[in-house]
Structures are given as structure tokens and as C-alpha cells.
Description:
By secondary structure, the chain is mainly alpha-helical. It is built from nine helices and two strands. It folds into two domains: about 30 residues, no CATH class; about 100 residues, no CATH class. InterPro entries: IDLSRF-like_peptide, LDL_receptor-like_sf, LDrepeatLR_classA_rpt.
Amino acid sequence: MPYEPFRCPGGEVCISIQYLCDGAPDCPDGYDENPRLCTAAKRPPVEETASFLQSLLASHGPNYLEKLFGTKARNALKPLGGVEKVAVALSESQTIDQFGDNLHLLRSDVEHLRSVFMAVENGDIGMLKSLGIKDSELGDVKFFLEKLVNTGFLD
Length: 155
């Protein structure tokens, strides 16, 4: 809700949420215009992303996300720092390349992920199915990836 206060770092200054990421710094240190914060503000909450990733892993086993993020996503994303860290990176990384850098992904994994996103954007269900994403999951996966695409993740 736009009238709820947002507390600037340091805790003395609170601003209205509508002033977040409006192009004019309102916090003393300009934190309200921090690109990571502004990206995160447009994305689904980290908790929602984390629970979505968690539910995919719970339904399909600890290596399921390898289909999206490559070999480093084995073992419930442990090599990437775990579900929470990946959720934060998805929330804060402005672009897919930044996401790759933040998680030290291989170039080939970033390119693979990009092709998955492009398949979603272009409605290329065949490509998603070729990864082993089942019909029953396509809706969820598409919905989730579209939210990222819509906030500039592929730019």
C-alpha cells in the first residue's frame, strides 16, 4: 500500500513507498534509488520465489532445477548457496547476466537459462518440454519466469 512507511537504513527517516525508485533520492544515503532494491521491488517477494523453488524441488527431487540453472543447481541448489540465496539473486539481479555473475554460473549455464526464458517469452512449449518440464508444470514454470521477463531480466 503506497501510504505505508518505508524505513531508510539508519532508521531515522521513513518515506512513503510511492517514493521508492521514483528517480529522486529520498533517503539520506539515496538507498531508496538503489538499483538492486528497485529491481527487487518489481519482482515477486523473495519468500514467494523461495517457496516456489522449494515446491518444485519437493515435487520433483533435489536435481530438478538443473533443467533451468544447469549442473550447479544439483542437490537442491546447494552448490549455488541454497534456495534462499538463489531466490535473493533472482529478486535483486537486474539482468540474467548479473544473476549469472552473482551466483558464479558458467557462461554456458547462463546461455541455457536465457534460452529457457526466451522459450517462455516466445511460447515455445516444445523447448520447455525437451528439458523434461512436464505439461502439469508448464503453467507454474511459465508464470514464474514471465514475472521475471516482465521486469527486465532478459534485457
